[in-house]
């Protein structure tokens, strides 16, 4: 099974399990021949079958591609390789292509969607009120110097794995772990905001 076949299978599973929920699909598709303004493949283009296959998948799952600027520049070329698809394009706004940390530019966008951060089961989490922030910051500063030395020589995935592993390791070193109880409220709506909200409501 090639990567586009696997993508189609994955999207089918998402649609089957998520029902009418919207899809946002991103990644480096490495198909420079597609003209995303017209959604066509020029005659004689390289990898024409793969390009048409991706266009067919996007059409079948009602996905619109939203990046229309080059995301990788070569000595004599500029190609749109890093793509953002959405089944509901108005969920995303302020889509920009900005300088990246590899040979590709970065694509950033604002997702205009409310996210419920509640959880329904007990889980472990760090107690940031009882940790040693100063020592944590010192260790992070030392790590940052090491991390940036060869950052551009590693892949995005390798950089992310190193960053994630180090953050978790330092958090375990400097912060105690506690059991977080189930909740469905928004994490940002803390005690001070609840008091202010009740005060405002009482004045109405």
What does the model show?
The protein has 204 residues and is of the alpha+beta class. It has two domains: 3-111, 4-Layer Sandwich (Deoxyribonuclease I, Chain A); 132-174. The protein has helices spanning 3-18, 48-60, 133-149, 156-174, 191-203; strands spanning 24-28, 64-65, 72-73, 78-79, 82-86, 92-98, 106-111, 123-126, 177-180. A three-stranded antiparallel β-sheet has the order 1-5-2, with no helix packed on it. Strands 3-4 form a two-stranded antiparallel sheet. 8% of the residues are buried. This is Endonuclease/exonuclease/phosphatase domain-containing protein.
Summarize the helices and strands and which ones pair or pack.
Elements (H helix, E strand, L loop, with lengths): L2 H16 L5 E5 L19 H13 L3 E2 L6 E2 L4 E2 L2 E5 L5 E7 L7 E6 L11 E4 L6 H17 L6 H19 L2 E4 L10 H13 L1
Helix pairs in contact: 3-4
InterPro entries: Endo/exonu/phosph_ase_sf (IPR036691), Endo/exonuclease/phosphatase (IPR005135)
GO molecular function, one term: catalytic activity
Pfam families: Exo_endo_phos_2
- Strand tally is 9
Which stretches of 5+ consecutive residues score pLDDT under 50? none
Task: Give the radius of gyration.
Answer: 22 Å
- What is the overall pLDDT average? 87
Q: Class of the largest domain, according to the CATH hierarchy? A: Alpha Beta
> Judging by the overall fold, what is the CATH architecture of the largest domain?
4-Layer Sandwich
Task: State the helical fraction.
Answer: 25-40%
Alpha-beta content class: alpha+beta
Protein name: Endonuclease/exonuclease/phosphatase domain-containing protein
GO molecular function: catalytic activity
Organism: Nematostella vectensis (Starlet sea anemone)
Domain Endonuclease/exonuclease/phosphatase: 5-107
């Amino acid at each position: 099974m090639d990567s586009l076949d696997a993508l189609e299978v994955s999207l089918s599973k998402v649609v089957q399990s998520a029902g009418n929920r919207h899809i946002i699909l991103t990644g480096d598709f490495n198909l420079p021949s597609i003209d995303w303004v017209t959604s066509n493949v020029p005659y004689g283009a390289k990898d024409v079958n793969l390009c048409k296959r991706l266009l067919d998948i996007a059409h079948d799952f009602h996905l619109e591609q939203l990046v229309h600027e080059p995301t990788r520049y070569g000595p004599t070329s500029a190609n749109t390789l890093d793509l953002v698809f959405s089944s509901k394009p108005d969920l995303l706004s302020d889509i920009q292509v900005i300088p990246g940390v590899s040979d590709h530019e970065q694509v950033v966008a604002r997702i205009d969607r409310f996210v419920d951060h509640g959880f329904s089961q007990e889980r472990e989490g760090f107690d940031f009120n009882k940790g040693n922030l100063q020592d944590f910051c010192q260790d992070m500063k030392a790590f940052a110097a090491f991390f940036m030395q060869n950052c551009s020589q590693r892949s995005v995935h390798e950089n992310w794995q190193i960053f994630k592993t180090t953050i978790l390791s330092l958090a375990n070193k400097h912060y105690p772990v506690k059991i977080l109880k189930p909740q469905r409220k928004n994490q940002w709506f803390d005690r001070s905001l609840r008091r202010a909200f009740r005060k405002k409501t009482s004045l109405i």
